[in-house]
Amino acid sequence: MKKFDIDSFFAAVCGFFIVYLFTHHSSIGVSPDSVVYTSAARNLYYHGKLEAYNHMPLVDFPVLYPLFLSLSLFIARLDPVVTGGIINGLLFASVIYMCGHIMKQIMRPRLVKWALLLGLMLSPALLDIYTMLWSETLFIALSVVFILVTGWYFKQPSIARVMVVAICAGLACLTRYAGVTFIFTGCFLIFFHLPLRSKKRITHCIVFGLTSSAFFIGNLIRNAIITGTFTGNREKSTTSFFTNLYYYGKVLYYWLPFMKNSEVLVSVFAIVFLVTAIAIIIWRIRTNYNHESYQNIAMVFGIVYILFIVITASISRYETINNRLLIPAYAPLLLVTVYAFGRLSFKLMFFRKTLTIVMLSAAFLLFIASQALESYGMYREYNTWGIPGYTDDGWRNSPITQYLKQHPQVLNKPAAIYSNAHEAAYFTANVAAESLPHTVDKEDVETFLTADGHYLLWYGHIDDPDLVNTSFIRQHKNLTEVYSTSDGAIYWCTNKK
């Protein structure tokens, strides 16, 4: 039996309490996506239906994360918004422990392992995610489990072990649609595992591909049966491949906070890093050099994931590529980077021992210090104003929110309610509103314009250029003010004759 990893456990416990401290002021952060996840989990628990707050079937997102939140509600008998800090703290702790466990197996020096543990524990990029009620929190944990079980499979390849890897990949597909990157990564690694005979490689690859994709395909078929679409309505991308590469570089700039005022340099470095990593993967395949090692699995997954996001963002419209979209690649690539520098330091130490120790220690301290300062700044902001989202002080103390909570009868007519922040209306004031249409969706705009006699709940501090605005609405409808505050208004809308 392997010795218990006390270092990783201690770091994991610290990670849990860091998330707890970050979410202490206003509870877990809640965004529009969080509202969908939470409402689906509530509806599943209380009504047995996997529907969002607007009674629409859940198709824009896969089903596993709402199921996960519903399970937490069943166990704790408390709403996910209440227990979100504990849930995310446990997930964050599991990521830290598993990454430390991997590093312990591939690098003996504790100093190198602690470099990784501190890099994860104090990462503003990860804390930005684990302070929010988002599916990425579970997805990241599954990515590290995937690295572990894939390495376990390569130690003694068998059908039973490849099935375990496939189930992990399938669960990732049910957490986020980007989970298909697990399937791509697994098929790639198994197919190019040259020590296995060709027949066995192909058999294992087919078994893995069919088993893992069954989860994904099953979810798509469910969506198609319910709504006639596989993943909900998706708009065509408005950004090119090279523009998305630039945004990927900006995310890396955020991941390396010590490189302030060097955005162009980091963008170039981001592309160089991507090309270099791909070249290393190709070289390892050709030479069969440590192909099945944890660090190689982590690198392949990280690169496949980044390429998938950049390419698909050039086809289908996402939010601008940001930390949230790319964060699943962070822990695997940090693990690879720390391992690479650890190996390099021990190779160079025989030639320039003192210089090597000084330079690498300085680089490590600079990185950790910058991470800690960035995270401390986040902590001060979160514990002053709350985590940005619908649980922060701005939303909780909003005059329009307070009025709606105290005067629900203001929306007393049996009519539709439209809003430029319908998720906020549901979460903060328990108002079931529909979203204003997107300007590019002409059919939805026409439906809205023909609707006669409805409420408009307008939040003045929300600026979403994708939605029709009040100027456009006033051109086509009569707006009668029902009530207004400093940050919003309620209108009764009728069509102009």
TrEMBL record:
Transmembrane domains' residue ranges: 6-23, 81-99, 111-131, 137-155, 162-195, 201-221, 241-258, 264-285, 297-318, 324-342, 354-373
GO MF: pentosyltransferase activity
Compartments where found: Cell membrane
Keywords in alphabetical order: Cell membrane, Glycosyltransferase, Membrane, Transferase, Transmembrane, Transmembrane helix
One CC-aspect GO term: plasma membrane
Domain of life: Bacteria
Topology of this chain in the membrane: Multi-pass membrane protein
Record-linked InterPro entries: LipidA_mod_glycosyltrf_83
Subcellular location, principal: membrane
GO biological process, one term: lipopolysaccharide biosynthetic process
Name of the featured protein: Uncharacterized protein
Species annotation: Filimonas zeae
